[in-house]
Structure formats: C-alpha cells, structure tokens
Amino acid sequence: MQTNFLARTKLGRMFWRRVLPLSVGCYLRQLKAIGPKPVLLTTAVFAANLGDRRQEYDQHVLDDSGLPDDPIQLLHLWIEEAERSLKVTEPNAMLIATVDAANHFQPSARVVLLKHLDEKGLVFYTNYGSKKAREIESHDRIAATFWWPEMHRSVRVQGRVARVSAEESDHYFSIRPRGSQLGAWASQQSQPIESREALDAQYAAVAEKFRDSEKIPRPDQWGGYRITVESMEFWKGGSSRLHDRILFKMTESGQWAKTRLQP
What we know:
Blueprint (H helix, E strand, L loop, with lengths): L1 H7 L1 H25 L8 H10 L18 H14 L8 E8 L5 E8 L2 E3 L2 E7 L3 H8 L2 E8 L4 E11 L2 H9 L3 H9 L9 H14 L12 E15 L7 E7 L5 E6 L2
Helix pairs in contact: 1-2, 7-8
C-alpha cells in the first residue's frame, strides 16, 4: 500500500526521483568514510572454529635409518632446506623458554634468531639486562623450539645456556648493520619507557654520539648466549596424526643415542 501510494502520487514520484537517491548517496558516503566494520565473533563461535581447524600432513615418512648420528648436523640440514624454501621467511627463528628462579620458577618464552650453529651448540644474542638474560643468569636450563609449518617440521632443543666469550660477541656485533648497532646502545631492553617518542629520542641521541665514528663498539650490556644441547627431538607431520618423532639424547659416555617416539 505504501509503495503503491508513493508510486502513484506527485509527492511519491518526487520521493523516488530526488529524495531517495540523495539519501542513498549520503549513506554510501558515510560508509566509505567509516570503512568496513570488523566481523565480531562470539566466544562460542570462535572456539568452535578453532576446534574445526586442522591441517592434513603429507604421506612422506621420516626414515630414521637414513639420518645422521649427530643431531647438530641434521639441524643444519633442516635449516638449510627451510632457507632454500621460498615459503619460510625466517628459517633461523626459534622460540626459547627460560624460568625465573626467584619467582617460583615461572616460565616465559619469546622468539629470537639463531645466529650461529656448530658442534658446541646454538648461539643467539640479546641485551644482558633483558628479562630473558636475568632469568638465564638465575637458572641455566633452557628449551628452544623451531617451527616450520610450511614444511611440516619442528625441532625441540633442551640443554644448558651460558654466555659466549667477549671476543665472539665483539665479532658478531662488528658485522651487524649500523642501525642495529645503534639500537643496541639506545634500548635498555625490558625496561619501561614513557612513549615511543622517548625511545626515538634515545636512538637519535646515540646516533648523534657516534655520528663521526666509523666503528661502533659493542656495549657491555649486549652479547651472546650459547645453548649446549643435551637432547634434540625432530618432528615431521604425518597423515592421520601418525607423526614421526626422532629423539637424540646425549649419554654419559658423550655419545648421541637415537630413539623413535610415538606421536
């Protein structure tokens, strides 16, 4: 009835020709200015979606009979293969977990970059005043995890951690980009700061300080840690959740023992 009235009367024809287009145009302009609104999911829907998510892994089986006897060599190989893969952006990223001995051994974890790997262990660098460093100094047990989902691979590492020599830290610091060197001087890692502007001001002050310096020295509060490996587990995703797990564990005789674990 209302539609018929608007279509037949003079007032109705004016509404269709002039008012409605103006109203729709105004509404569209408002939508463009506001932008798309995010779709909000309830907790129940979100949880249901997580429960439905799953990834099927390929049929390739990790044959432990063809693996090297040294897990460091195998880790080298897997990192190199991840690096050659165009899908993995940071193949040397690893999550490290430490504990705070002064706070009921509360664990914490964060992602760092592996910067050196040899028979002595895995090396990463950080600020010695950071939270991770303080926890390491309080308790030398550590765990690390590499995760390459694009390759259906993961590696878990457990062991002890200690500082590398000053000479090793000096060498690595000398080959870092200049901006990263300045950042190591500018940031008191894990300490509060009032704003981003304050952080930028600290960096600008450091940049000015070393403006005429060809070489920037390593700050005393910055350096490396080495993880001495005690065990290393290699994981390969398998079909029907029958994943491959190969564990290398250092024995008292100083040899690696290799064991296949159930998924």
